[in-house]
């Protein structure tokens, strides 16, 4: 297991490096953002661009960029959106909003999704199972921004229960902030609930038809007892890694949802950086999203071996 983990981490870093290089070269092929005249930060940014090797070959520029990031965690300064400000500091101020919204979404989604999946599996081939399975496929097929518009129209416009946009400020744990986050949380939750419902239902349906479940029933256990003591434990091998993956991925957030509800998070920052041609912010966000996706995959794969000792990741036998 140790060798497998080291190998996966090495491959993750290599993949991250390759993707970063591709993004870097593509961005540097575009003309840099125009700098305003008579601004005290203009001269500083021009000097930083010269130090970053803007007039040198792309591989030399990438080496300078990589050395600054690894040795000093220096991602440069903002050229457009936050003119002259440190990119890393801007990013860290945006991260809490993304994390808290997605954390609320996952806390809401996991118990509901697993409960619906268990209910559908226990009611297999009944109208309950068919209804839940059909709704699950419909929900998964519809993009999350569609739910955002529906929630805004129904809950915010028609009923007036929630504000259209997220409340300004940094009081993340206040009641007013929580209420203003709920439309975005609900928009993100639909797809996650459907995903957990489908996974739990598929795995539990297979486990309930296994021979050891028949043996458990013949030994005197009721269906509920056999399900809780044996079936759900076997389902955990698939469901729990999915939960780990979701928790790792909470920082990734949703670009479109953050834009719709004016959430001041990294997703909204990413879109603004693309539209505003602020390439230093774009590079930091790109590396962040890539690293989060790769890390989530590793955590999911490794967790299989810890949950079920019979699974040996990386074994040749």
Describe this structure in words.
The structure is a single chain. The model has no long low-confidence stretch (mean pLDDT 81). This protein is mainly alpha-helical. The two termini are 13 Å apart. The protein is built from 12 helices and no strands. The radius of gyration is 24 Å and the shape is globular. The chain has helices spanning 2-28, 40-51, 58-72, 87-122, 127-141, 144-158, 175-208, 211-218, 223-248, 255-260, 266-276, 279-307. The protein has 2 domains: 2-72, no CATH class; 87-307, Orthogonal Bundle (MetI-like fold), CATH 1.10.3720.
What are the key terms here?
2 domains, single chain, mainly alpha, 317 residues, 12 helices, globular, MetI-like fold
Uncertain runs with pLDDT below 50, 5 residues or more? Answer: none
Number of strands: 0
Please state roughly what percent of the residues sit in beta strands, choosing from under 5%, 5-15%, 15-25%, 25-35%, 35-45% or over 45%.
under 5%
Query: What is the CATH class name of the largest domain?
Result: Mainly Alpha
CATH topology of the largest domain: MetI-like fold
Mean pLDDT: 81
Distance between the termini: 13 Å
Q: Please, how many domains?
A: 2
Name the CATH homologous superfamily of the largest domain: MetI-like
Order of helices and strands: HHHHHHHHHHHH
